[in-house]
Design goal:
single chain; alpha/beta; Rossmann fold; four-stranded parallel beta sheet; Alpha-Beta Plaits; three-stranded mixed beta sheet; about 270 residues; 2 domains
Length: about 270
C-alpha cells in the first residue's frame, strides 16, 4: 500500500511541473519535499520562513532534513508581527500568519518560474480549527497529502520508508501557539517562551509545551514524562526553577498530559454553543 501511495503522490506532484514547498522541517512538509524532489528533481525548491515565532533549533533541523533528502533549500524572512491583525491574536491569528507566508512564497515562486506552491497539510488537519487553510485557498496553495486523504499515521509511515530524518519528529508549531487567544502576541513574549522551552529541553525533556499565561509559565509534559516528574519532586523543582530563570515570575506543571492543540478547545466549545 505504501508504494502505491508514494507513486500516487509523486504522480500528483509531477503533474504540477515545478513546486515551491512551504517547508518547516516537520514530518508533513518534509515528506512533501522528499516526494517533490523525487518527482521533479531541480524543479522542486523547499523554502523555510524565518521569524520571531520560529522556535530555536527548528531552522537547523530543517536544514538537516533538506540536506538529507537532497532538495534545494532557501530561507525567506516573514514579518507577521507587523500586522495588527496578527498581534491581536484572535481565532484567526493563523490566517494572518499564513497570509503573510503564502504571499511571500507566491511572489518567490512566480519570480523564479515555479508554477505551483505546495504545503504539507494532511487529511487530519481538515478536522481541526485551521484558518491557515483558508489563507492557503486564497493563494492557490496545493496540498497533495490532503487531496489524497493521507493522515498523520500514514505520513509518518511513508516518511519512515523514505528515510526522512523527521519521520518521528514531534509536532512543533510556531511559538505563538503557546499564547491563549486574546492575549496579544509580542516579540518579547515569544522570546520568553523560547527561552523557557530551551531550558526544559536542556534538562532532557522531548515532548512538551511551555504555555504563556501572563506571569505564569505553565509546562505541559507528555504522559510518560509527567509520571516521572510526579514521582520525583526534585525533577519538578528543577523544571520550575528553569522556567522562572527564563523570565516567568511563576512556574507551574500542568497536571494533565500534554495534548497538541488544546488551546483550540475554547473555540470548539464556542462553536458548539452557537
Amino acid at each position: 500500500m505504501s508504494d502505491q501511495l508514494r507513486l500516487a503522490l509523486e504522480h500528483r506532484i509531477r503533474q504540477l511541473g515545478g513546486v515551491v514547498v512551504a517547508f518547516s522541517g516537520g514530518v508533513d512538509s518534509s515528506l512533501v519535499a522528499a516526494l517533490s524532489v523525487r518527482a521533479l528533481g531541480e524543479r522542486a525548491l523547499a523554502v523555510t520562513a524565518v521569524s520571531p515565532a520560529l522556535a530555536s533549533g527548528e531552522l537547523d533541523a530543517a536544514r538537516e532534513v533538506a540536506r538529507a533528502i537532497g532538495i534545494a533549500h532557501e530561507l525567506i524572512a516573514t514579518d507577521e508581527l507587523a500586522s495588527p491583525d496578527y498581534r491581536r491574536n484572535d481565532s484567526f491569528r493563523c490566517f494572518h500568519c499564513k497570509t503573510e507566508l503564502y504571499s511571500r512564497l507566491s511572489s518567490l515562486a512566480g519570480s523564479r518560474g515555479f508554477p505551483a506552491l505546495v504545503s504539507g497539510a494532511n487529511a487530519d488537519d481538515a478536522g481541526d480549527w485551521r484558518p491557515g487553510l483558508r489563507a492557503a485557498a486564497e493563494h492557490g496553495v496545493i496540498h497533495p497529502l490532503l487531496e489524497l486523504g493521507v493522515g498523520k499515521q500514514a505520513v509518518r509511515a511513508l516518511a519512515d520508508k523514505l528515510a526522512v530524518p523527521s519521520a518521528q519528529k514531534p509536532a512543533s508549531p510556531c511559538l505563538a501557539s503557546r499564547i491563549p487567544y486574546g492575549v496579544p502576541v509580542e516579540r518579547r513574549t515569544l522570546a520568553r517562551i523560547d527561552r523557557a522551552e530551551r531550558a526544559v529541553a536542556a534538562l532532557g525533556y522531548h515532548v512538551f509545551r511551555v504555555r504563556h499565561h501572563g506571569a505564569i509559565g505553565r509546562l505541559a509534559l507528555d504522559a510518560p514524562e509527567l509520571r516521572r516528574v510526579d514521582a520525583e519532586p526534585a525533577r519538578r523543582a528543577e523544571l520550575e526553577r528553569a522556567i522562572r530563570a527564563a523570565g516567568y515570575e511563576q512556574a507551574e506543571i500542568d497536571p494533565r498530559p500534554f495534548r497538541s492543540g488544546s488551546l483550540n478547545d475554547a473555540l470548539t466549545l464556542e462553536a458548539q454553543r452557537r
